[in-house]
Amino acid sequence: MAKLINKMLNNRLGFTRYCAAVVMVSSLSTGAMAADVPSFDCTKVDVGSIEAMVCKDAGLSQLDNNLAEVYSQALEKAKNEQPPTLKAMQRGWVKGRNECWKSDDKHACIEASYQTRIAELQAQYRLVDMTGPVFYACDGNPANEVVVTYFKTEPATLIAEHGDSTSLMFVQPSGSGAKYQGRNESLWEHQGEAKVVWGFEAPEMTCKLVTK
Question: Are residues 154 and 182 both part of a single domain?
Fold first, then answer.
């Protein structure tokens, strides 16, 4: 009788362990599946569209989820923004991302589009660690000032202010120092000095780091 009871207990213990293992594997599988699904409904996208490519690619789906999280954080920061521009800008970004169908390397285009948008939102709405502001006086004139804040985004970004205008710039490959490029502005810093171009075809300014 004792042997029979022990056998039943052992069988029950084995069954319990088996059930626990099944639950664990199921949970892991469900989590993996969730991570592979983007923030939008893949059943409603057009076949062959950029959204369809995102749905089929785990890495792009993860980037889409990352962006959705960052966008949600930005919306919270922008709730009192006047005029409210964030939602319109996001719709514009979606249209821009979808233009990747024209690219020879669609995957790389989509990936870069997500990465730069995430970094842009993180910098604009101060969602990551930052360094600064740092002050530069340009062309020997203390009043000709460029104020720079650096953000620990991926890729790295900065927001520069000059006069009454602002520019978001992304880090670029460079042989020395750190080079950043915006829409029509650039900043190339090296050992406390920065070469700054502010505006389309504007002359280059030589700017020195100022301690305040």
Answer: yes
**For the residues of the chain, what is the DSSP string, one character each?**
-HHHHHHHHHHHHHHHHHHHHHHHHHHHHHHHHHHTS-SS-GGGSPTTSHHHHHHH-HHHHHHHHHHHHHHHHHHHHTTT-SS--HHHHHHHHHHHHHGGGGSSSHHHHHHHHHHHHHHHHHHHTT-S-EEEEEEEEETTEEEEEEEEEEE--SS-EEEEEETTEEEEEEEE--SSSEEEE-SSEEEEEETTEEEEEESTTPPEEEEEEE--
Domain span including residue 154: 130-210
Does 118 share its domain with 147?
Answer: no
Number of domains in the chain: 2
Q: What does pTM read for this prediction? A: 0.80
Please check whether residue 201 lies inside any domain of the structure: yes
Torsion angle defined by CA atoms of residues 143, 179, 153 and 208, in that order, rounded to the nearest 10 degrees: -30
pLDDT, tens digit, for every residue of 91-115? 999 999 999 999 999 999 999 999 9
Query: pLDDT for 139-151, tens place per residue?
Result: 999 999 999 999 9
Is residue 9 a part of any domain in this protein? Answer: no
Judge if 136 and 169 occupy the same domain: yes
Does a structural domain hold residue 107? Answer: yes
